[in-house]
C-alpha cells in the first residue's frame, strides 16, 4: 500500500505538515522541529525512526560548559539524552498508545559503545524485539487502525 511522504523542506510550517498528515496519513520525514511540541496520538504515530543520535553540535555554549566541567562526555551525553527523550516522547503520549522505536545509528549495534547502556537506561521503551515481532506489530497496527 503506497504511503504519502511529507518532507520538511522548510516550505510548509510544522502545523501545516501535521494537519495535512492527519488528513491523508503517511510518513513524515522531519528534523529537530518535530521532536518538540507535537502531539500525535494513537494511529497518527505508530513508528518513530531516529537516524542518528542527537548529540549537540559544538557551539560556544556547549564549549563553555565543557571548559567549566572539564569533561566533554559529562556535557554532551546529558544534552543528547534530553533531546533523545524528547523525540521518543512523541511516540508514546498516553496509556493506550503503542509504537515501534527504531534507532538506526550504527553505534547502538556495538555492544562496546561507551554510551550504549546509558542510552538504553534513559529510554522508557525497554523491549528489544526480533524481525518477526516487528512484522507482527505492523500487522496488528494495520488491523487496529487502518482495517488492512
Biggest β-sheet, characterized?
A: 2 strands, parallel
Mean pLDDT equals 85
The total of helices stands at 5
Total number of β-strand segments? 4
Description of the molecule:
This protein is mainly alpha-helical. The chain has five helices and four strands, in the order E-H-E-E-H-H-E-H-H. The strands form two sheets. It has a two-stranded parallel sheet. The mean pLDDT is 85.
Structure characteristics:
mainly alpha, two-stranded parallel sheet, 9% strand, 4 strands, two-stranded parallel ribbon
Summarize the helices and strands and which ones pair or pack.
Blueprint (H helix, E strand, L loop, with lengths): L4 E3 L6 H11 L2 E3 L17 E4 L9 H10 L3 H16 L11 E4 L12 H7 L8 H16 L2
Parallel strand pairs: 1-2, 3-4
Helix pairs in contact: 2-3
Task: Summarize the structure in short.
This protein has 148 residues and is mostly helical. It contains five helices and four strands. Strand 1, helix 1 and strand 2 (27-29) form a beta-alpha-beta unit.
